[in-house]
Design goal:
Layout: H1 10-17, E1 28-30, E2 37-39, E3 49-50, E4 53-54
Antiparallel strand pairs: 1-2, 3-4
């Protein structure tokens, strides 16, 4: 049976485990219609368009508070 030659230090152990918790940044792009930032491959929250088609009907008048 294989036995480790020496104790693994905390730094070596933790640096090996550090890559498991990396977060990925979501893909954010400009909407080709309204030029506001949106998540890629999703309907724009501001204008309701996706891939050149209106998918969600949005209110034209928005109250400014």
């Amino acid at each position: 049976m294989a036995v480790p030659k020496g104790k693994t230090s905390k730094a070596r152990k933790n640096s090996r485990r550090s890559a498991h918790w990396k977060l990925s940044v979501p893909g954010i792009v400009k909407c080709p219609r309204c030029q506001k930032m949106k998540l890629s491959h999703r309907v724009c929250k501001h204008c309701g368009y996706y891939d050149g088609e209106q998918v969600v009907k949005m209110d034209v008048e928005k109250k400014k508070a």
